[in-house]
Amino acid sequence: MWVAAVVFAIVLLLLLIFVLQNGQRAEVSFLGAHGTLPMGVALLLAAVFGVLLVALPGTARIVQLRMLDRRPITQPGGPPGPGPTLPSTTGVAGVPLPPRPPREDG
Predict the structure, then answer these.
(1) How far, in Å, CA of 46 to CA of 18, rounded?
(2) pLDDT of residue 66
(3) How far apart are CA 45 and CA 26, in angstroms?
(4) 10 Å Cβ neighbour count for 40?
(5) Taking a C-beta distance cutoff of 8 angstroms, is the pair 26, 35 a contact?
(6) Residues 67, 53 contacting (CB under 8 angstroms)
(7) Mutual orientation of helices 2-21 and 39-70 as an angle, nearest 10°?
(8) Residue 80: its pLDDT value, please?
(9) Rounded alpha-carbon distances, angstroms, from residue 103 to 47, 85, 91, 106
(10) Do the Cβ atoms of 40 and 22 come closer than 8 Å?
């Protein structure tokens, strides 16, 4: 726990140094809004928006997959049975799997 806190503090210190060293003004325009920001702040905001641009669709996909995983498994032609389901006889993309060789007990 302490290691994570120290690493986080070092990263924040490096970000602070980055912002302070890049203090020259930059003109920023976004959806009709115009303004000036320090260059370090503008770059940091661009990085944060980039992370959000990747994280939001990824989070939505994870939630979608979890919802599918919680859905009960239904057998074709009837309600789900109380016991375990049979293993699939198809592989990737619905291609039938080859038959298993007989087990040799010995």
Answers:
(1) 14
(2) 86
(3) 13
(4) 19
(5) no
(6) no
(7) 140
(8) 56
(9) 57, 21, 21, 9
(10) yes
pLDDT digits (tens, 9 = 90+) for 26-82: 888 888 888 888 888 888 888 888 888 888 888 888 888 888 887 776 656 655 555
Name every residue whose Cβ is closer than 8 Å to that of residue 19 and which is 6 or more positions away in sequence: 38, 40, 41, 44
Looking at residue 47, its amino acid is A
Contact 35, 23 (CB under 8 A): no
> Locate tokens 């990737």: which residue?
92
**In sequence order, what DSSP letters do the residues of the chain get, joined into one string?**
-HHHHHHHHHHHHHHHHHHHH--SEEEEEETTEEEEEEHHHHHHHHHHHHHHHHHHHHHHHHHHHHHHHHSPP-BTTBPPPSSPPPPPSB-GGGPBPPPPPPP---
- At 97, the amino acid letter reads L
Q: What is the pTM of this model?
A: 0.50
- Residue 25: how many other CB atoms lie within 10 Å: 11
DSSP 5-19: HHHHHHHHHHHHHHH
